């Protein structure tokens, strides 16, 4: 038997894209795709129905069930050095277990078996890497491929939920969720972590990818934008591209009438998204003052059903205007030109309210996105999908009065600990006046609550003026004192 990683390193052509095949409902779509451009790795019983380079299994019961299919359809069987038996790690190694089955012994003698160290095994072989897994084999396989150097992976049959494809109806009663979990959804958070940490391009083959997220923002909001991006990436089970719209090279014209001018520097940015997306495919628009808590694919997968925009609305009775701060956009249906839109404002065909609060430039708006995807200043763990810090005078990177500020500060600290946001970036934006200085105290002491900070922390904000309140009338003495205090604080907290 050969170590998977050594085998992989000796076959460099294996770095081309891979296709993972599982037993979920989308497995039934495999014949609709040209799979010649992929190396194929099957999970468990999927080897029964498709030719594959590798047949991966963690539980030894599976190769016993599928021995003839493995011999017929797979070039290699790939298993942990210490497999599971009935979903529990055994004390026998793979070499010992193989001797108990004739067909598997045949694979062994033909050198068609590869092994690796799985984290659950009580004994590790040699100095081969240890592959993490938490719930299901798809996690192990994606980690295996990423650790071996694969950059692109697609899948069919890795669907979540609690059903198999009809191809596997004969084993549904005996094998479905036999490890005791109630749903395959548990695997997605760990898949998201692998995508982010290993920087691997992963998506289901039957889903448009990557998820394209455009953020309405400016340079001053870089840190909130990066916290938002981190929250998206750590929760999303397929690859994502996040693009801050201020980085586009498209010039934004200004309306002549002051009443029609954008209320923020990025209010009109959403109207250039179809152009940036090449007027094809889908895109998600969000504001920078947001934080995501669930898999963005749940939003990405929503059907348009004739709409060109799916929008999230706040529930009636809140006193707030309709929100178009979270949108799923059909870019092919939205032939927007920002110059034409501003010209309509100048000619009186549109006004600011019709454009921003009614989105009159769209033909068919479907307000079907649940309010949990645009939760305005409210957070409930396990229920809120996206928290929108929409009140500028309570945004937790600028103020200490937000009841849910600890949720954002905790995310900032985690993003910094993971290296997604650097200490230097935080220091620069505090120095430039884009973040309140008391964040230095919170990050150093891991004190996430914002409403109960000690006097030491509050003093750091003594001369801080948030960017949206800073203007030519701001006393120069205040700005100078803030600069001096920040310089001392950065040195004291070693940022």
Automatic annotation (TrEMBL):
A Pfam family the protein falls into = Glyco_transf_8
GO MF annotation list? glycosyltransferase activity
**What Gene3D superfamilies does the database record attribute to this sequence?**
Spore Coat Polysaccharide Biosynthesis Protein SpsA, Chain A
PANTHER family, from UniProt? EXPRESSED PROTEIN, PROTEIN CDI
By what name is this protein known? Uncharacterized protein
Q: Which organism is it from?
A: uncultured Cytophagales bacterium
């Amino acid at each position: 038997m050969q170590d998977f990683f050594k085998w992989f390193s000796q076959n460099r052509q294996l770095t081309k894209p891979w296709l993972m095949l599982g037993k979920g409902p989308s497995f039934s779509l495999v014949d609709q795709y040209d799979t010649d451009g992929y190396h194929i790795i099957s999970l468990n019983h999927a080897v029964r129905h498709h030719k594959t380079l590798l047949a991966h299994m963690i539980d030894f019961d599976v190769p016993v069930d599928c021995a003839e299919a493995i011999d017929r359809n797979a070039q290699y069987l790939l298993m942990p050095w210490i497999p599971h038996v009935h979903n529990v790690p055994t004390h026998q190694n793979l070499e010992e277990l193989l001797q108990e089955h004739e067909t598997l012994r045949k694979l062994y003698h033909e050198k068609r078996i590869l092994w690796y160290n799985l984290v659950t095994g009580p004994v590790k072989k040699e100095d081969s890497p240890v592959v993490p897994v938490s719930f299901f084999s798809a996690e192990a396989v994606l980690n295996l491929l990423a650790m071996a150097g694969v950059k692109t992976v697609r899948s069919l049959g890795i669907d979540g939920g609690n059903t198999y494809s009809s191809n596997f109806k004969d084993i549904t009663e005996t094998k479905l969720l036999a490890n005791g979990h109630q749903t395959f959804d548990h695997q997605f958070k760990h898949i998201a972590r692998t995508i982010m940490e290993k920087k691997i391009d992963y998506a289901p083959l039957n889903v448009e990818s990557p998820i394209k997220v455009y953020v309405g923002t400016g340079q001053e909001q870089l840190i909130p934008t990066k916290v938002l991006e981190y929250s998206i990436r750590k929760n999303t089970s397929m690859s994502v591209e996040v693009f801050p719209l201020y980085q586009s090279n498209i010039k934004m014209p200004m309306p002549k009438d002051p009443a029609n001018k954008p209320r923020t520097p990025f209010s009109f940015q959403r109207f250039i998204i179809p152009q940036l997306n090449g007027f094809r495919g889908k895109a998600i628009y969000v504001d920078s003052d947001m934080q995501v808590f669930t898999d963005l694919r749940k939003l990405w997968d929503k059907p348009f059903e004739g709409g060109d925009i799916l929008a999230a609305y706040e529930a009636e009775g809140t006193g707030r205007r309709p929100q178009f701060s979270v949108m799923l956009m059909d870019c092919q249906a939205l032939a927007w030109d920002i110059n034409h839109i501003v010209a309509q404002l100048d000619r009186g065909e549109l006004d600011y309210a019709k454009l921003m609060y009614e989105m009159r430039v769209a033909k068919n708006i479907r307000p079907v996105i649940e309010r949990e995807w645009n939760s305005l200043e409210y957070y409930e763990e396990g229920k809120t999908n996206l928290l929108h810090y929409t009140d500028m005078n309570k945004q937790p990177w600028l103020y200490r009065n937000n009841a849910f500020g600890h949720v954002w500060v905790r995310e900032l600290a985690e993003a910094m600990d993971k290296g997604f946001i650097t200490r230097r970036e935080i220091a620069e934006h505090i120095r430039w006046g884009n973040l309140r200085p008391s964040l230095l105290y919170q990050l150093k002491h891991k004190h996430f609550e914002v409403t109960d900070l000690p006097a030491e922390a509050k003093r750091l904000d003594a001369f801080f003026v948030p960017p949206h309140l800073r203007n030519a009338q701001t006393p120069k003495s205040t700005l100078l004192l803030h600069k001096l205090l920040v310089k001392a604080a950065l040195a004291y907290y070693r940022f």
